[in-house]
Amino acid sequence: MSLRIIRKKPDTRSSRGSLDREEGGLQPPTGNQHIYQPVGKPEHAAPPKKPPRPSAQSQLGGLACLNTGDSYNDGVKPWRLQPQEISPPPTANLDRSNDKVYENVTGLVKAVIEMSSRIQPAPPEEYVPMVKDVGLALRTLLATVDETLPQLPASTHREIEMAQKLLNSDLAELIGKMKLAQQYVMTSLQQDYKKQMLTAAHALAVDAKNLLDVIDQSRLKMMAQSRPH
Questions:
Q1: Closest CA to 175 of 224, 212, 135
Q2: How far apart are CA 175 and CA 200, in angstroms?
Q3: What does the radius of gyration of the chain's CA atoms come to, in whole angstroms?
């Protein structure tokens, strides 16, 4: 099968101008890239294999790869948070089999990832249900932390409570950016506020992981105090 090479001209439009004219569009390849097209009847190719879905255990690891930047040349829609299935970051060596805090942090991260995968093409009327799902996941997490707090050393309570307040602030920021994205619908500013929505959601997920780390350290401190000397 013979191949012919089509060289694409470099795109001279700026990122902002491209987004203003075509919401969610992908930037064409740069001048150094080529597209290979077969001439004649193409052979039947096997359908591509679907990538494995990230497991619940790997969702926290995906935090390291949540991307809110302008990713055009990697085949990714702009401003979309991109979870990747990687090894979870180091956490305390604790039994997670019945760890409700860990489960609810993972649930919150999954809600953020779900919102990120839907926000770009979604119409404004769908913003509220998506943000509401994130808010419900956060409320469940904070309720679980409140139930866990009396079991932890009193000296660690203030740090945990401060981490909870930060999460509430993150949610308020997300809601504020959502309202602005709705207010400026059909304008170039809508894309900016969508980006800011995802940035706020990303901060919420990262701060949830930080809350888990604080609670883990409190648990380790309690375990150390309970050991006989």
A1: 135
A2: 9
A3: 22
Give, in degrees to the nearest 5, the angle at Cα 55 between 213 and 95: 45
Does the pTM surpass 0.85? The reply is no
- What's the CA gap between 194 and 124, in Å, rounded? 10
User: What is the rounded (10 degree) CA torsion for 82, 86, 90, 94?
Assistant: 110
In sequence order, the 6+-apart residues with CB closer than 8 A to the CB of 227 are: none
Residue type, 24: G
Report the pLDDT averaged over residues 200-204.
95
Helix (H/G/I), strand (E/B), else coil: 6: strand
Q: Looking at residue 2, what DSSP letter applies?
A: -
Tell me the mean pLDDT in the region 71-82. 40
Count CA atoms within 13 Å of residue 206 on its CB side.
13
Q: Which two tokens stand for residue 91?
A: 């956490």
* Average pLDDT of the chain, as a whole number: 73
Altogether, the residues listed in the chain come to a count of: 229
In 10 A of CB 130, how many CB atoms? 21
The helix or strand, by DSSP H or E, that contains position 19, with its residue range, turns out to be helix 15-21
Residue type (1 letter), 197: M
35: amino acid identity, one letter: I
Q: 6-12: list long-range contacts, CB under 8 Å, 24+ apart.
A: 6/34, 6/35, 6/37, 7/31, 7/34, 8/33, 8/34, 8/35
Q: What is the DSSP string of 43-65?
A: PPPPPPPPPPPPPGGGTTGGGGG
Q: Where are the alpha helices (DSSP H) in 120-229?
A: 127-148, 157-183, 189-226
